[in-house]
Amino acid sequence: MQRARQDLVDQGHQVPDLAQGDDVYVCSSAGGGLRLAVVGFERQVTAEAGHRVGLSAGAKVVHIFAGRLSVADVAALRADRPDVILLVGGTNGGNSEVLLHNARRLATSRVGAAIVAAGNDEAAQAVAEALTDTQRRFVMADNVLPKIGEVAPTSARSAIRVIFLRHVIGGKGLSKGPLFASLVQAATPDAVLTGAENLGSFLGEDIVIADVGGATTDVYSVLQPEGEDATLRKHVVAPLWQSRTVEGDLGMRWSAATVLEAAQSEGMSGAADAGLVRWVGSLREHTDRIPESAQEQGWDAELARLALTLAVRRHGRPANPAEGPRPLMNVKYLIGSGGALRHAPSGVAKGVISGVLADHGGGWRTPTAAIALVDEHYLLAALGLIGDQNTGVSRGLATQIMEQG
């Protein structure tokens, strides 16, 4: 942190002293990010709601369980090494037996993760007592599924953020001193989603952000539901209109091979190109490889197009056969992010993103008139950190993002 500040000062920037926390805003996915497990009542109801809330909080969901935890189930949960367990179950006034059983089982288990309890509110006191009796680290939150068809992520998302700051950033010894932990305010994916929400609000438009990384590709959407989507609850677990999906098998380096496999299985154009196949093969052993020639840059851009297209397809498709596709028809801006786009030759990144918008064979409803943009300076995370504190800065950052288009 101090070295980064000094680099900025050496470049002529005015940077406040890092001890002045009111002027410094930091997000981080250090230590491997936030690993979340979801323990719920029914897989297609409360566990699914918890899964969606966890993603919206910037977490990597590493384990999902539904039902009554057994000793073996707890062992499997522990093996996945979550940082946080999101304990959910039952609508308000509904079933509380499974929630209480799971709270008591976790309270006496050897799982060291902190717990966010966000289930049936009528059982909240009993859940808190069970966790307190064994001195577990926990935070209580409002029910993520207060009634069928309604997902309420805000309280649980805030609680997960508290746990992340207190026990993940503060507890993993990621810095020699306390300064780093005192400055971090959110997990980076959480900050990006908040930035997307701020940008969507500022623009008054539906937006989608596709962030391609070395191991995963994250897709964020901020939508304004219209017509029957705004009034009817057609699903047992209603969609979140501000949401994030994480594709852990789609990435530019560690997951490059699975990008190619997934693209070939879906019959995507270019996925069988011999040069691209060789390029991806070379990345298996050299995940730090950077394209040097124009040909390698072209293969890397094609890999980015496939990863982004697949990730946006999955984001737009129905979560299960009983649901409809995510309503992306009115998306005005598709914003690409990630090092592969920010460091691509001029014009290449927008071409990659435009390829996503031209994808009409993936089973999702392509936007009718979307504009492709690139977050060239990675401003969305900053917008998420600063936007709530300073409306003027929020507008300035949003304007910079749009000017890049």
- Report low-confidence residues grouped into runs of 5 or more: 230-237
At the third CATH level, what is the topology name of the largest domain?
A: Nucleotidyltransferase, domain 5
Number of separate strands: 12
**What is the CATH-assigned architecture of the largest domain?**
2-Layer Sandwich
Proportion of residues in extended strands: 15-25%
Main pleated sheet? 5 strands, parallel
Give the proportion of residues in helices: 40-55%
If strands are numbered along the chain, what order do they take across the biggest sheet? 3-2-4-5-6
Broad CATH class of the largest domain: Alpha Beta
Global shape: globular
What does this structure look like?
42% of the residues lie in helices and 15% in strands. A 5-stranded parallel sheet has the order 3-2-4-5-6, sandwiched between helices. It has a 5-stranded mixed sheet with strand order 10-9-8-11-12, with helices on both faces. The chain starts with a helix and ends with a helix. Helix 4 links the parallel strand 4 (84-87) and strand 5. Helix 10 (256-265) crosses helix 12 and helix 15 (380-386) packs antiparallel against helix 16 (391-403). The radius of gyration is 22 Å and the shape is globular. It is built from 16 helices and 12 strands. With 405 residues, the chain is of the alpha/beta class. The longest helix is centred in the C-terminal third of the chain and has 23 residues, at 294-316. The chain has 2 domains: 28-169, Rossmann fold (3-Layer(aba) Sandwich), CATH 3.40.50; 188-403, 2-Layer Sandwich (Nucleotidyltransferase, domain 5).
